[in-house]
Amino acid sequence: MSVASEASASPDPDGGPDVARLLDAMRAVGAELELHAALDRICETSAALTDARYAAIGVVEEDGEGLVDFAYHGIDEETARRIGRLPDGHRGLLGALIHDPGTVRLTDLDEDGRSCGFPEHHPPMRSFLGVPICVQGEIFGNLYLAEKRDGGPFRDNDLDMVRVLAAEAGIAIGNARLYEAAQQRERWIDGSVAVTTALLAGGDAEDALQVVAEQARRLSRAAAGIVLLPADEGGLEITAVAKDRPSQALGVVIPPESELVAELLGGKAVFLDDAATDPRVLTDFGREYGPMMMLPLQSESGLLGALVTPRERGARAFTEAEHALAAHFASQAALALMMAEAQRDRERLAVYEDRDRIARDLHDLVIQRLFATGMMLESAQRCSGVPEVREGVGKAVDELDVTIQEIRTAIFALQQGPAEAPSGLRTRVLREINMAAVPLGFKPVHHFVGPVDTAVDELTGKNLIAALREALSNAFRHSGASRIDVAVDATVTLRDGRGGVRLSVADDGVGIPDSGRRSGLTNLKRRAEALGGDSWYGPGLGEDGGGTTVVWQAPHGPRTGSP
Predict the structure, then answer these.
(1) Domain boundary pick from 388, 419, 450
(2) Are 556 and 528 in contact (CB under 8 A)?
(3) What's a single GO CC term here (predicted)?
(4) Cβ neighbour number for residue 92 with a 10 Å cutoff
(5) CB neighbours of residue 487 within 10 Å
(6) Which of the chain's termini has less CB crowding within 10 Å, N or C?
(7) Contact between residue 69 and residue 88 where contact means Cβ atoms under 8 Å apart
């Protein structure tokens, strides 16, 4: 038989404490390890022990100015929904018990001067018993019991049992806190390991920052995870955003005159109770949220960037323990970013050395042999008296000339370093196409529509190039295509009426299977949505729609309005 049923079926007629029921209640209270489950169990058990209709525990904030949590028993979900917001402890009898903790026993709540009444739809309550709960010598909160089932007041034996139960509850809550803290630390440690592993596994820098944002959001149970890097014009630029809904915050620059930016650039962590009302928050994007942690990503050489984890408006504030764990995570993430960047530098150096060798071989061996072959064909053409043969040899010589020019273009692309990358989007697209021609074994067809170089801003252009690289890589690795068409159209109109740029990469390969990984396509969609665009795929260039066409589009104009 449960504690609740025993308490209801076997009340003590003499009014003395029922030791057996009390011991059962104490065992039940100590059975939970998860904190909120422990609070619910204490409410349920204390209500059963005292034959009360309603029970609740108000958890006091760290600063002692209100309630940070409120667990209750006896009110169904529909009634709780109609009542609305839970008590915050800023007024009324519950607020008085926070500032003056002690035992309170009332026959009628309405007759107490500290009571401020109940909200609409709240069930009537007359008798009341309140007892403080202490954890390791500090006030954790208060246990409230209301409305004795027999209609009378709470008796002395009720008070005695509730005091004992509150002492046991303090021990149980202390254990639950320790367990929760251990679980929380384990999650953050596992998250740090996951970030380090993901960053060192390779990939580009933007994907690495996205991993940090996603892990920070998950571990802090925040509404978003945001990574900012120092902007060229000063301030901090949002470079990675992880949240449920698509965000257009990517590329937003927090101005250097912001007090928050100044503190982050100085290597200081910033914790906000409510970003929506904090005057230091200068952006509309920041004012969408409530509690917020802003942590510097610091290295020995200086500031790498900042990590921001905001919660929704009205959400629970971050605790001191979460501040410490998040700061440690940020330090580990900064170290992992440095290690990953060093690893990518070594890999890039190896790639550049290999590209230099390939370029030299193409120039010194392949072009020379093609040139010699062309001269031999020209000599044979002059010696031949058959018009068809002369015409065929002439076409072969022309094809060799075109091939030599394409190889020279590829050599030029291979010899360019990252700092030498041309600024024009059209040239960067051609460079990616020429680079892809080497592993593909053929050169993709391309065409441009509209003012590609002048209409598309730098942020969108950079992401378009990354999307093109991803699409060409997918076509090479998975499609088995013999033809690829690349189109860049800077004259499209997006669904919301804004002007945009559209990238289309079509092939005649095997198409996308019904099952299998789609991480590349997911990355393309994420990049587009972060800019306010979209990405999708459809039939390709093969017969009857075989193959795949990948479409990526985003607004091409500069951002306007307040970020």
Answers:
(1) 419
(2) no
(3) membrane
(4) 17
(5) 17
(6) N
(7) no
What's the number of CA atoms in the CB half-sphere (13 Å) around residue 98? 22
pLDDT of residue 20: 63
The two tokens of residue 395 are 């076409």
Looking up residue 524, the CATH number of its domain turns out to be: 3.30.565.10
Residue whose C-alpha is closest to residue 370's, from 388, 396, 390: 396
CATH of the domain at 388: 3.30.450.40
Query: Which parts of the chain sit beneath pLDDT 70?
Result: 1-33, 62-64, 88-92, 113, 115-117, 198-206, 247, 340-341, 343-345, 347-348, 406, 409-423, 513-520, 557-563
The pLDDT score that the predictor gives to residue 10 is 40
For residues 249 and 339, membership in a common domain is answered with yes
Residue 315 backbone phi and psi in degrees, to 5? -75, 165
Burial class (CB in 10 A: 0-12, 13-18, 19+), 267: exposed
Co-location of 73 and 175 in the same domain: yes
Q: What is the pLDDT of residue 503?
A: 95
In a 13 Å sphere around the CA of 52, the CA atoms on its Cβ side amount to 33
Tokens of 467: 């999307």
Cα–Cα distance, 224 to 249 (Å, whole number): 11
Which CA distances in Å does 121 have to 52, 73, 75, 85?
20, 16, 11, 12
Residue 151 φ/ψ region, left for φ over 0, alpha for ψ in the -120 to 50 degree band, beta for the rest: left
Burial (CB count within 10 angstroms: exposed 0-12, middle 13-18, buried 19+), residue 457: middle
Q: Label residues 26-37 b or e (16+ Cβ within 10 Å = b).
A: bebbbebeebee
Is the residue at 246 inside a domain? Answer: yes
Nearest to 327 by CA among 267, 393, 396: 267
The alpha-carbon radius of gyration of the chain (Å, integer) is 34
Nearest to 302 by CA among 250, 267, 352: 267
Q: How many residues does the chain have?
A: 563
Q: In the 8-state DSSP scheme, what is residue 109? A: G
Assess contact for 293 and 325: CB atoms under 8 A: no
| pLDDT score for 9 | 36
Quick one: 168 and 294 in the same domain?
Answer: no
Last residue of a domain, one of 371, 397, 419: 419
Measured CA to CA, the distance from residue 553 to residue 528 in angstroms comes to 6
Closest CA to 311 of 290, 286, 287: 290
Q: How far is CA 478 from CA 257, 288, 436, 487, 516, in A?
A: 49, 42, 14, 20, 11
Report the domain count for the chain: 3
In a domain, 5, yes or no: no
Contact 331, 324 (CB under 8 A): no
In a domain? residue 208 = yes
Taking residue 162's Cβ as centre, other Cβ atoms within 10 Å add up to 26
Position 450 in a domain = yes
Determine the Cα–Cα distance for residues 516 and 537; give it in Å rounded to an integer.
15
Is the Cβ–Cβ distance between 245 and 257 less than 8 Å? no
Residues 500, 448: one domain?
Answer: yes
Helices (DSSP H) in 293-319: which residue ranges?
Answer: none
Cα dihedral 354→357→358→359 (10° resolution): 120
What is the extent of the structural domain holding 369? 202-419
For residues 366 and 437, state if they share a domain.
Answer: no
Q: Do 328 and 224 share a structural domain?
A: yes
Please give the Cα distance from 298 to 304 (Å, whole number). 6
- Residue 408 and residue 434 in one domain: no
